[in-house]
Request: fold
Amino acid sequence: MIIGVPKERREAEARVAASPETVRRLVGLGQQVLVERGAGAGSLMSDDAFAQAGAELVDDAAGVFGRADIVLKVQRPTGDEMALLREGQVLVGMLDPYMNREQVAAYAERGVTAFALELLPRTTRAQAMDVLSSQANIAGYRAMVEAMAAFRRVVPMMMTAAGTVTPAKVFVVGAGVAGLQAIATARRMGAVVTATDVRPAAKQEIESLGAKFVGFIPEDAATAGGYARPLTPEEQEKQRQVLADHIRSQDVVVTTAQVPGRTAPRIVTAAMVASMKPGAVILDMAVESGGNVEGSRPGETVETGGVTILGPRNLPARVAPTSSPLYARNLLNFLGLLVKEGATGPTIDTSDDLVAGTLLTQGGRIVHPNFQS
Ligand code: NAD
Reply:
């Protein structure tokens, strides 16, 4: 079987869908791997390293798409890449299907067998393939680093002969994968950290990282699968009252609240932002799904009343040499579902819940129930 890895072409995407380590493993399993020249450059993986791992280097995307049985991607294909996809070809990546339904239809029209890894059920067996977790963990770390870099004071307490510096107060909203890593990062930097969430289990997780829980957890807050449910308008109001008092005194706020498949909850209001001290920094990680912070804008830095609001896009790509190997290993584990010993083509076993859960299109049809218009 031929597995192809093109260079990512979307703006500011520095990651790559394979690493020399995963290429070596695939070649060891008897597969042929094509890597486009320069595909690993943004992740500090050289063409030589891929070649030494057993990959065949290919000059352009057409050379990869033209021969591969399975194409591995980080982000969904661009228009040019769509034109290169062939009937029967398997495409695996973070295809962002909910925001790109017309592209799902286009995979079907081209006869592509497309897998969207964001749709993996969050079960124990799927953990080793869970790209959202591996990337959100890195994003949570990077979010805190960027928020701290924009903060114009020192973070940890310092006792010096010239006086004592008080530690920065950091508040993290939403303690899921990204939020917990943001908390841990702020703690390592010496901040005094508080955090909030609406799931009962999150309180203990926040405290286990040495941070203090602030806020309120509605009764019956966690729904099936351990995810939060949206708050009712009354609960939202109650949350606002509790948080308004707290946010006023914070130096750095990082927000990560989300309920899967929905617009991000609006938690930090313009009035809360206006109540903060000059020099305070807010980073809205949910900016691309509607934003937790009133006034945040995707990819922009907004200054308002002395407060800086950051809305960074694609944080994992800013630490691609770390995030790519993790993503590549997730993909290698996922390929274990499709690549069976001795088979000459990919095996699509839809009785496997991980295969069925991620399979968007097959045989010219949209097969995923969530996308059959
Ligand atoms: P997650 O589902 O693991 O965590 C989200 C948390 O928010 C959950 O713990 C949930 O209980 C909590 N939450 C939901 N509603 C809430 C509310 N009203 N108040 C307080 N907490 C609430 O998600 P994640 O993987 O940690 O991702 C978090 C956010 O970061 C998402 O919006 C995701 O899209 C975004 N993200 C951004 C980047 C980037 O580069 N900007 C990268 C990765 C993730």
Summary: Residues 206 and 213 are 6 Å apart (CA to CA). The mean pLDDT is 96. Residues 131-150 form the longest helix (20 residues). The first strand starts at residue 2 and ends at 5.
